[in-house]
């Protein structure tokens, strides 16, 4: 499932806390992004149509909650990125960041620890 960057802002809000009404979502992500009520509701409608978000009626309002776990979404997007740009391989991605000077000392330390843990 493809989730646009605008839709992912709404997903992040729902992954942080759910269920939420559209009013709460508008206040949390709409206003800071300069989105109107209509824009947020359109994004929610698209996410419901994609079955990424569920909408449960509660009185005259709907409660929205994610139907896709954040971890599953991140895993699929990460693999998609690797497949599209690096032939499915992680090392060229890390090399790209290294060559561009984008790896901090903390990033390098975390990568070293990860490699050490994986090697055991």
TrEMBL record:
Record has DNA-binding as a keyword: yes
Keyword terms, alphabetized: DNA-binding, Transcription, Transcription regulation
One of the GO BP terms on file: negative regulation of DNA-templated transcription
Pfam families attached to this UniProt entry: Penicillinase_R
UniProt GO MF annotations: DNA binding
UniProt keyword annotation of Transcription present: yes
Family named by the database record: Belongs to the BlaI transcriptional regulatory family.
Protein name, per record: BlaI/MecI/CopY family transcriptional regulator
